[in-house]
């Protein structure tokens, strides 16, 4: 990862290439303008910060401001990486080829990409730049724990500040100022989490290579087991805490009966009359209230606003006996894997066994730590987006009162720049109602439109967008085995875990985000069409010891509800055993 050239870089002039790989986990399906405009600003701020930290000069950052303002694209209301921008920023650094492969691993793209013009960093200057940035990365690594702790303190302080201010009745100008304070207090200090993502990818890969070196036959399976059952991982804790509430509900026959009979309204009304359950539920919502499917989409209500979303999940958890014991399986798998690796290490002669022991413990401890940091930061991110949603809804209330828009949820069809420019008198249109109506028409038109995972457009891109989803179905159902174990069962296609009743043995989903994670313990196996070995679904399935396969292309179109399958979470293979009624 490295630096620098003093002249602007040009890519292919008449086209852009778009890819939605990992970003579809955060922004799947149709997305509103407000969500996109906020996400776009986040990407611009954060990745300019990363480049500056790696030594890219302010002059180059200024000259290429347009590149950083266009890291992601908005096509038919879908969010995509703009690959031209990502690879151009990479070309600001030396060692382009090596860094390209590294970045592609982090982004989860299925195939490589390149830009036309790249700088040369040869000779003494190239060595100097590589050493300089290498030292920067080394310092970041050495100080990483301290920097993460400092960031965590900053985050909690900032969120408390925002919470107190959002509880007040502020003016429109004050809400705009609060938004700017959010950026200043958090986004411009987001470097430690980004560094952690980089370290996670590096150490995950190093540990994988090391375990494969020791165990050529089953290294991948062992590698996944070693990363199970770490504990205190927020992504897994959300399901554990909810299962604890379900366990306590069983102790109250009236509540349990209401839940099992499917009476959602009466159940949540009666909860308020039960001191123990009400306190547990309030505590859960206080900590995890911003979780939901598509929780980074500002237009989506969270479970704090709509706790009834949890009804079907709680119902299934109450029906499923001893669900809390599921969370010990990952820990058991990890212990067995550790014993197997240590046995192999101790069989080597001295001093090689000592060297391998130190190397193994170093790689394992750091990989686990970075993954835990990474998943816990996902909750921070959800809470920030939740606070931003609340801020804009407060602005929307005032806009409705003053007749600027018709409904509060109209605010999501405006960009944040349009909202703030209207507040400060710099808007280029005074008729926001007409603008909202136009955006809603576009949203409805694009709601069911499908675009390919990757495609290239002319400039401007909206002239010739591809029609339909180009997808090649493989001859076999195969993906990335990310949590070992072989299970058989009936498939259930899940598209919204909060509205669908859980019936199947094996969950099949197009993609997941952290909001899906409470339902994982309700299944014997997890299959996801999109995703990588470091996606949320892979990490949490490993953590709690549920067999999982991700990146299975076409699986939601090939398999149907009720199909019987056998899946292997080590090899990544899914075998269809029979049709729904076969």
Mind describing the biggest β-sheet? 8 strands, mixed
**Which structural category do the helix and sheet elements fall into?**
alpha+beta
- The number of distinct β-strands equals 12
In terms of per-residue confidence, which ranges show pLDDT below 50 for 5 or more consecutive residues? 1-12
Strand content: 5-15%
Number of helices: 21
Provide the gyration radius in Å.
25 Å
How would you characterize this protein structure?
The protein has 21 helices and twelve strands. With 582 residues, it is α+β, with helices and mostly antiparallel strands. Among the domains are: 1-142, no CATH class; 477-578, 3-Layer(bba) Sandwich (Glucose Oxidase, domain 1). The strands form two sheets. The protein has an eight-stranded mixed β-sheet. A four-stranded antiparallel β-sheet has the order 2-3-1-4. Helix 7 runs antiparallel to helix 8 and helix 8 (172-185) runs antiparallel to helix 17. The protein is globular, with a radius of gyration of 25 Å. The protein starts with 14 loop residues before the first strand and ends with a strand.
């Amino acid at each position: 990862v490295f630096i620098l050239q003093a002249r602007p870089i040009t890519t292919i002039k008449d086209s852009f290439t778009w890819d939605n790989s990992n970003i579809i986990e955060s922004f799947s399906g149709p997305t509103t303008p407000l969500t996109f405009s906020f996400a776009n600003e986040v990407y611009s701020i954060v990745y300019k910060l990363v480049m500056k930290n790696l030594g890219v000069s302010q002059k180059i950052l200024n000259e290429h401001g347009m590149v950083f303002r266009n890291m992601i694209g908005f096509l038919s209301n879908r969010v995509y990486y703009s690959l031209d921008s990502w690879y151009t920023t990479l070309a600001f650094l030396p060692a382009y080829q090596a860094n390209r492969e590294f970045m592609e691993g982090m982004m989860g793209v299925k195939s490589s990409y390149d830009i036309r013009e790249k700088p040369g960093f040869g000779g003494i200057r190239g060595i100097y730049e590589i050493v300089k940035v290498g030292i920067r990365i080394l310092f970041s690594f050495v100080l990483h724990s301290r920097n993460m702790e400092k960031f965590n303190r900053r985050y909690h302080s900032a969120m408390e500040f925002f919470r107190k201010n959002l509880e007040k009745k502020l003016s429109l100008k004050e809400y705009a100022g609060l938004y700017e304070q959010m950026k200043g207090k958090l986004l411009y200090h987001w470097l430690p989490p980004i560094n952690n993502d980089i370290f996670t990818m590096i150490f995950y890969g190093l540990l994988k290579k090391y375990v494969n070196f020791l165990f050529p036959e089953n290294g991948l399976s062992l590698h996944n087991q070693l990363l199970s059952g770490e504990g205190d991982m927020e992504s897994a804790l959300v399901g554990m805490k909810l299962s604890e509430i379900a366990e306590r509900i069983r102790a109250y026959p009236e509540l349990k009966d209401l839940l099992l009979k499917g009476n959602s309204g009466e159940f949540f009304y009666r909860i308020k009359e039960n001191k123990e359950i009400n306190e547990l539920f309030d505590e859960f919502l206080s900590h995890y209230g911003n979780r939901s499917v598509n929780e980074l989409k500002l237009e989506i209500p969270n479970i704090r606003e709509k706790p009834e979303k949890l009804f079907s999940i709680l119902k299934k958890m109450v029906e499923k006996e001893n669900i809390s014991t599921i969370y010990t399986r990952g820990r058991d798998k990890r212990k067995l894997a550790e014993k197997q690796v240590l046995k192999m290490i101790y069989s080597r002669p001295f001093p090689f066994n000592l060297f391998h022991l130190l190397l193994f413990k170093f790689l394992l401890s750091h990989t686990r730590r970075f993954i835990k940091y990474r998943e816990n930061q996902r909750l921070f991110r959800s809470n920030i987006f939740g606070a931003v949603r609340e801020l804009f809804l407060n602005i929307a209330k005032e806009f409705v009162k003053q007749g600027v828009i018709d409904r509060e949820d109209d605010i999501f069809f405006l960009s944040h720049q349009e909202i703030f420019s209207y507040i400060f008198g710099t808007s280029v249109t005074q008729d926001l109602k007409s603008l909202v109506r136009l955006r809603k028409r576009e949203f409805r038109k694009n709601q069911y439109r499908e675009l390919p995972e990757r495609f290239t457009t002319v400039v401007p891109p909206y002239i010739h967008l591809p029609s339909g989803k180009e997808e090649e179905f493989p001859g076999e159902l195969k993906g990335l085995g990310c949590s070992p174990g072989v299970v058989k069962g009936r498939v259930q296609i899940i598209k919204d875990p909060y509205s669908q009743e859980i019936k199947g043995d094996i969950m099949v989903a197009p993609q997941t985000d952290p909001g899906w994670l409470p339902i994982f313990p309700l299944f014997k196996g997890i299959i996801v069409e999109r995703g990588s070995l470091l996606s949320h679904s892979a990490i949490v399935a490993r953590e709690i010891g549920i067999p999982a396969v991700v990146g299975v292309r076409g699986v939601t179109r090939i398999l149907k509800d009720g199909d019987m399958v056998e899946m292997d979470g080590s090899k990544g293979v899914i075998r269809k055993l029979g049709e729904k009624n076969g």
